[in-house]
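Issue 218. Parser rejects a valid record. Input:
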Amino acid sequence: MASLLLRRARLPMMGIVPQSVRQLAASKGVEPPSICQAPLALFEYLMEHSDRRTSEQIALQKQVDDGRSAVMAGSPDQAAFFKLFLQAMQAKRVVEVGVFRGSTTLAMALADSVHHVVALDVSSEYPSTARPHWEQAGVAHKIDLRIGPALDALDGMVRNGEAGSYDFAFIDADKANYDAYYERCLQLVRTGGVVAVDNVLWHGAVLDQDARVNERSTSSIHNLNVKILQDERVDMSMLSLADGCTLCYKK
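Output the parser choked on:
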C-alpha cells in the first residue's frame, strides 16, 4: 500500500517515476538505473523531495511516457541536475547532441542563464512532439533545433568558427559515434566549459567483457570511458546519475 506521503504527493505515484525508468527496470530485471540501482521506492522518494518541474515539463513527460521508445528518454532527476548546473556555471550557450523527445532540452532551456541551445537530432519525428511544450514554457526562441546527422552539424559549427564559443555540451545520441561526438564537442566548448556524456554505464552492459568487444554500442561507450579517464585535456567525474553521466571540464 502506498504511504500517506505518496497519496498526498502532488503527482500520482505512477507519474513520479517516468515510464522510461520503469520499462528499463523491467526489461533488465533490475531496479531503476538511477542513484546506483536504488530501489524504485527510493527513486520515488527522491522525486517527491526534489521535483520542481513546471507544468509544461510534467505534460511533456506524460507524453513521453505514453509514447513509443520511452526507455530512451532522459531521466527527470538528471534534467533537473543539468538545469541547476547550467545556472551555477552561468552557461549561456549549449549544444545538445541527441534530442529525442526534448525533455532534457526543455530543462536546459529553462535555466535562466541559458540564451541559446543548439539541439541536434537525426530525425524530426520525436523532437516535433516537444515543440508545443517548449512554446508553452516560453523558451522555444532559445532552442535552435537542427535536423540531420549530428557529425555533419558539429563539423559545420567548427568550420563556421564556433570552436570555443559554447559553455556546455550534452551527448546522448547513437553510441557508435560517441568518441567522434566527444572530440567535436570538446572543440566547441570554451576553456572552463563542460562536456557531459550520457549512458556511460549502459544499463550495466559495460561490465560484460564479451559485450565490450562484440557489441558495438557497448564497446564504443567502454572505450570512451577508458579514453576520458586518461584524457589530460579534461578534468572528469563519472556520476551514477541516471544511466551514468560523465562530466568533462575542459582545461
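Fixed in the parser; the record now loads. Residues 216-230 form the longest helix (15 residues).
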